[in-house]
Amino acid sequence: MALFLKLAELAEQLAGDAGRLKKRAAIAEAIAAVHGAASESEDTGLFALYLAGTPFAEADSRKLNAGGALLSKALLAVSGATDPELTAAYRRHGDLGAAAFDLLEHSRPGSSSGSRPGETHVRESGHGAPRVEARLTLEEVAAAFAAMAAAGTTAIRARLVEGLLRRASPLEAKYLLKLMLGDMRIGVKQSLVEEAIAVAASVPVEEVRHAVMLEADLAAAVKRAFAGTLAEARMRLFHPLGFMLASPVTSPEEAVERFTEKGAESAGVSVEAFLEDKYDGMRAQVHCGDPEQHGRVAIYSRNREDVTASFPELEEAFASVQQPLIFDGEILGWEFATARALPFAVLAQRIGRKRVPNEVRQQIPVVFMAFDLMCANEELLLELPLRERRNRLESAVERLVEAVRSPLTIDERTRGAQGVMFAEPEGVGMERLMLSPSRLVESADDIERAYAEARARSNEGVMLKAAASFYQPGRRGLAWVKLKRELATLDVVVTGAEFGHGKRAGILSDYTFAVRGEGGELLNVGKAYSGLTDAEIAGMSAWMMEHTLEDQGYFRTVEPLMVLEVAFNNIMRSSRHASGFALRFPRIIRIRSDKPVSEIDTVERVEEIYQSQVDKPVEGHA
After folding, report:
1. How does pLDDT run across 89-104, given as a tens digit for each residue?
2. Considering only 48-62, 100-114, 125-139, 422-436, which range has the smallest mean pLDDT?
3. How far is it, in rounded angstroms, from Cα 531 to Cα 510?
4. Which fold has domain 489-621?
5. Tell me, which fold does domain 245-483 have in CATH?
6. Residue among 6, 174, 178, 278 flagged as catalytic
7. Can 278 be counted among the known catalytic residues?
8. How far is CA 369 from CA 313, 378, 436, in A?
9. Is the pLDDT higher at 120 or at 397?
10. What's the pTM value of the predicted model, to 2 decimals?
């Protein structure tokens, strides 16, 4: 029976350790100890899973459904603290778990966060009633998490959280909250836990990682590692794999250089590269064709969220696939009349929707533009070169394109119990699966022409992918590069600032900024928090503190005197900001201490840049 306290104590130790090897050794020793004490239980797997900051296995679709607001209320109820006290504690740490430790230490003077394993201890509850309690076990925490995931109301989940916190020492409460929020902040990623599992079980780390990738279950991989059955892991659909990422380049010449430098050659990357348009849509994986779950489709975003509900027509279309497949590609708003992608600002109106009515299906139709095939017939294809994956992708799309269809609108009465439309005869509806055009590139001039053509098609730019490259989930390296140029920059003035989180707790590091209106008034146009060095942010924060006009707790209105130069990908019309515009992916280029506020850019300049975009939203769609 493993205690949660042991995990909390190790997490606290790891948070103070800087060395990766030292962390790995400590985790491996702890995993081996838990396995030695309870080799037949699930404790070892839970220990590894929780240390990696995950309440459930990745393949497990359950959610705790406990956000910061619910957890904060539960903490207030248990600790007896006031809202201002919680706000002050959070401000000190930028972390709810660390804030809980402070509040519970204060409210429980008789508690001991470092009691020996198995001890009982006496302390006061948040209501001042002392009682004797046993330490929490990993199995008890797992049972509470399962109950939270199954709870039908927020009130039930809140009671379960309070129950855990009332039984927890301050140190346990600290890491319970961190775990429930999915952010341990101890400098330990899952990859390090995987290495520690390999050390503890004396197996190759590659085998551990391969099993985790196939089954998306770290706890199951721990069990397999100690049982010697890692090779028996089999690929499962319906858990997101990591996406391969591209490195940015700013010119065709830089792209060519990246593919011909020694680093690329030594990594086995061929100079031969495929060129594709870079679409301004939503990166996604489509999982479909599981013979044991006929008609099931799952669509995952780049941050591994299940977004299937936002795109029911894709779910309907891919439900006809009969063999297990995982596609990598881009969800695009699509104008069928012109066969062109709609701007991202239009597609964005669909993201996050749980219900998509016929009106939205008609106004913003979507397609899936496939550019890679990650799995086929339960065979993971990641270690095949792109050239071969591309051949298999082309064959799959050619075979499926006529079947992967769905209508623009549906009769709600034709929907089944799971929300998936009953199958229609082949050929009915619109094609929803498309193949991203790709060709071999020959020179920098060739790339430049392709870039101009892609922009003329209202796409972001171009991608170049080494033909011999393997698919490396979560990696951003030399094998894929993206060429897209910044549209323009704007000189803006900071009007407000928010406190950051984690290492930026207590520092004003998120800046709201404005341009000048026709009458000289300042009109907000965006917010940015990246681009400055730590030293620059510290200086900015100190300046903001001294020039605060209104302190609203987490947000401060400041004197509009600090000018920044910001870059961005594009501009969208938006009712969220007073300017009527929003910058997409803004980032700070530099602090313009040389420029007076009277010379910042205007709304007219923003409008001018907006109108110059070849991929600006159609006004009727915005």
Report:
1. 887 887 899 999 999 9
2. 125-139
3. 11
4. OB fold (Dihydrolipoamide Acetyltransferase, E2P) (2.40.50)
5. D-amino Acid Aminotransferase; Chain A, domain 1 (3.30.470)
6. 278
7. yes
8. 14, 22, 6
9. 397
10. 0.73
